[in-house]
Design brief:
Chain lengths: 318, 509
Amino acid sequence: MLVNRNTLSMHSRWIAVFVTGTVLTMVWYFFYASNDGSDRWPGGSSPPGLTFGIVGGAIMLFEFLLWPKKKLRRFRFGRAQVWMRAHIWLGLLTVPLISFHAGVDWGGELTWILMVLFWFVIVSGVLGLLLQNVLPRLLLSDVPAETIYSQIDHVSSRYATEAENVVRACCGHPAEDWITTGSADHSSATAMIVGAERTMISTKVDFFELKNESQANMLMERFESHILPYLSNGARSGSMLRKAGQSGLFYDGLRTSLPADVHPVLDQLEEWTTARRQFDRQAKIHGWLHGWLSIHLPLSVALILLMFVHILFALKYR
Amino acid sequence: MKPLHGGKLRARRIPLGFNKRPDKMVRAKLIGAALAAVAVVAWSGAALFQRGLGAKRFSPGEVAEVHATWDAKCIACHEPFKSVRDGALEVSFAGLTAADDNRCIKCHNGAPHHATEIPSEVGSCSRCHYDHQGRLANISRPANVVCTSCHADMSRHMRTAEGFPAITPPLAETVTEFESDHPPFRSISTDPGQVRFNHDLHMTAGLNVGFSDRQLASKDRAKYEMKDGLVQMACGDCHGTDGEAQDIELARAATARSGSGIPARFGNGDYMVPVRYEDHCQACHPLSYQAGQPLDEMDVVPHRLIPSEIRGYLASVFGGGEEVNSSEPSEDKVDLMAPLTGPLGSPPAESEYAELQEAISGAEKHLRNVCAQCHILDVSGGGAAGGLEPVLPSQIPEVWYRFARFDHTAHRAVTCQECHADAYPESERTSSVNTDVMIPDRDICLKCHSSEGAGKDASGASLGGARHDCVECHRYHGGDYPLHGAGSKVRSAGKMQRVRDFLLGAESD
């Protein structure tokens, strides 16, 4: 959910709710505290404290419902954007509500755990909001070859297969499903690569079969030791190709060593390598973009469950 | 070369139904959520079924030290699903009933504040005493507002059989803070004491008469400090707290004499023990009945005898009975309750009787002056049969602040002069008669017991900072008997229990 100058108007109502709610909460709480005359802050059993607890708990429950709402999106319980805006601003409103409900105190073991969980959920949520405002732009600028995160390994393996086919054909050992068109002497031809599982990939590579055995061996050796591992496993391979500068030097070296006719093949390999490097970057950004939810959601589950335990004991022994 | 990153091209590399299986990020969320749920259930379950300290985990905070035994026994104090506070929100607005105070009263039978309080205004125990504030919290120290909810507007919160009485001085209609509108201390308006005592004289070196150690019996010379060869008395020569009472019998006798109702808490040093003639006066004021006797061999009569007893004692001495020649008379040597024996048992001859009468009369005449030096003689009856008039009771208050408590020990690091300046000859208003009240009033207390920086001394230096809330001096419970301590009957437990029941709380009911 973007919160910036352009989208501020969409958030304005919710910001008003948050600000008004916070001000009203503070006014009532501090007014009550100053008239209460006690040397301690009013806690959960005081009129404002109990009210804040009920309202704050209800909001927390609503916040939590975002998860089932996403899971059950086919039922269309309101617009997702409205849910998200409410999630953000009402979630922030729970900070004054719950803090004052607790009497600005940590209490006993259960309430201490609740407060720690609450703050972790809030901080992780705010962090997530910040990341969602920054990282997508980074993804657009840095990863033009972006694919679906879960399919990175799959797409990379396809690149690796296609690259292997091209290199083998170039070195005189084409795969069985290798289709060539053009002149029959193989001095120059265009290959159509069969790679994807469900259909033929339309990528076409102009290739030149290397006659010089030592050059073919060198290309094959470089491919198997550097390019293939990197295309298959990305940064996990530890290959020098994971760094753009070293990758450029690597391919420049190959171009120097191999005849110009093979350069389109090298260009293609370099492009796949670049794409694989972008996938690595995408995986890293995706990790940051969605990783916070791996903290936010489990802690929210724990918070909601413990909130009910707290309510039960607060009602029983009040 | 065609671009690799065309949308269609990339899409064709993705198998259909890729979204049927969650990626590792989604799996991490689901696994984390499941683990969190399991952890919460395990933690709560373990706490619920953990014997002993399990319930403590759900407590909103540790109870005070005095209740630590019941920290994990919620129902010792709580009645399930009933608020312990009658002022709680749901009780006030939702009409739910609050628990009664029975579980508190089992151990603390908090006495009523005053007979004139309005019962409907008296809240439950926990309205003033909040627990779960941590081990070190003092739950018997409620905030001022608890007191000022009535004392800020007394006439509406005090009721007698005749209705709402008018509040007249020394009671104050409005008291909100000690440092702002607390009235002067009403219990020190006059000194009811009937013992002649001149503080100015006694605190002057040589007592203004050149009194030196040579005028003391040899055993008493080490008792007093000397200044330029003259006796220089100090406060501690006569005044000491009950913390110095080394002799339990002595302390008990002092309490019995006082009739103040102060509980027998010897050793705390809260209060000054009454001045005792034998300890504090006799060295300079021996009750000799003959002039001109050497100090170390002086014949004296015991203190606290009524005229007829003195006459009997003198008859015993002059009539040849048991010789009493000691400057250390003690009650052990004179059984005041036993019938007089000796010479009175066998009547003397007439000449001897006249001689005896003359000796007794002479001694009584001498004693009359000795007694009158400190005591006021009661001449209303025309004198006792034996010639000596009785003395008026001393009536020196043993406790001055009758509506508040005071702890001398808590003030031990401050010189006596700071609060009792008029007892010193340096004071412009030094006291020379016993009717002067030298007990400090509120303005002296305010030097320390006020907001930090609010108190000022004579030079204008900022003082203050010591506690000055209501309960610093006043007790709420048993307000009609403000000197009753925690051990008084009105504060005893509502229910005597066996140790097991006491420790298990309501679980054993």
